[in-house]
Amino acid sequence: MAKAARLFDAELADLPAELRWREWMGRIEAAIFASPTPVPRETLAGLVGRSCVLDELIADIRDELKPRPYDLVFVAGGFQHRSKARFSEAIRTVLGAGEPGPPSLSKTESLVISAIAYLQPVTRASISRLLGKEISRDIIAKLKRLDLIGAGPRMAEPGAPFSYVTTPTFLSVFGFASLRDLPEIEAMQEAGLLDLAQDEMMPVDPLDDRLTEGDELEDDIRDQAFDAPDRLPAD
Hints:
Layout (H helix, E strand, L loop, with lengths): L1 H6 L9 H18 L6 H5 L8 H12 L4 E6 L2 E6 L4 H8 L11 H13 L4 H8 L5 H9 L3 E6 L7 E5 L1 H7 L10 H6 L2 H8 L12 H14 L9
Antiparallel strand pairs: 1-2, 3-4
Helix pairs in contact: 2-4
């Protein structure tokens, strides 16, 4: 493996400038096409010479893809090919229920994943207090099965409960390059998306802790038994 790495010619110094650029473009697009997950910039940089300006190379690839049914996008910390929205109906016709994309979530599940995205790391008890009703373990379990959330660090509060954070899959599924791309609260209000939250929430006494320490302890046991290794918030 080490020998193969030494033999790989990233510089392509023996090629004329124009051919070298085209070869670098081909390498980058081939690597992205073959990868099932977004390819980080650092990985792609290893495929081209030191004189290559990767952003300019990516821009040239995107220009050539304009007439194609897919784009090259930066999502979840890397580059990936994504089909264009106007072809979604054709894709659904072929793939049906197998079409990749955001999973079907209930109103409450959508609110929970939104709360975790904005407040992470956050405990189930905190989410329950925020929404004014108890958030069941089944909802948390479903979001984990979809790999939209994972276990975060234990919180510095009584019982040291586990917290929850979003995952790279969350970024990829919803098309965010990083958590910095989450919409501003003001923009969500203008779009009317927070009306949904108001419909789901009900008044609650801020001193009324709906989840007992016993509930949090059971959460800890479940996390230790079934969770993958703790994940810090994806950024």
